[in-house]
Amino acid sequence: MSNQARLPLRLVLGAGLLLIVLLIVPALVIVGKALNPGLLPSLLSPVVTEALRLSLFTTSISLLITLVLGVPSAYFLARFSFPGKRLLDTLIDLPLVLPPTVAGLALLLTFGRRGLFAPVLENLGITIAFTSVAVIIAQVFVSAPLLIRPMKAAFANLDERLEAVALSLKASRWRTFWSVSLPLTLPQLIEGIVLAWARALGEFGATIVFAGSLQGRTQTMPLAIYAALEQDLNAALGLSALLTLVAFSLLFGFRSFVAQTSEK
Known about the structure:
Elements: H1 3-34, H2 39-43, H3 46-79, H4 85-93, H5 100-111, H6 118-123, H7 132-157, H8 160-168, H9 173-184, H10 186-201, H11 205-210, H12 221-228, H13 233-263
Helix pairs in contact: 1-13, 3-7, 3-10, 5-7, 7-10, 8-9, 10-13, 12-13
């Protein structure tokens, strides 16, 4: 094989090796460093257990809200044309490109004590900023587009004739959606759920600005990692490894599901 023919292969191998160093090695280092005798005691500390409990609770609620609001929104955007659709579509995707601190400031200026809705919330006796509710809102804000985007594409590519057949058999539109449209978009739905939940679980910037980092109230796992870096490195490593393994398991599980589904 000539040197001219080898050159592209070397470039590919070099780029692949560099990518492994940048993307894979840091994750393996986190897990490797966490495997030490102090791991278990640190994971059982009150700071870690409270952060884990709060993260599981808030991400479960935020995912439920994202599903309830995101799936119908994706269907609407995919199936209907209206003035300003492109603008609305862009605004929904905006949280994906906003810096997290900007997202947190935007939420604070909207739902905070001096925010846009402050008079209404004050009259109702409701405080949102720096509470667990603020954590959930921040998670929905940053993660919802990750569910809406794949579901919108799935609904747009769905063969409408299948729905027409169901409607011709006297099925209601609601039943047609649940029995035909949604099952046919199941891979995209699971993809959106995995990505949205993982994004909510790892949310940091918007949360710390809008909700703060109050142990037991708003200190989720990423915030606990940041706080532990100055006090308990073992706890920070343990939480980091746990988040890394959870993220890997979710992505690997989803891809295995997709592979099995495509083989059937």
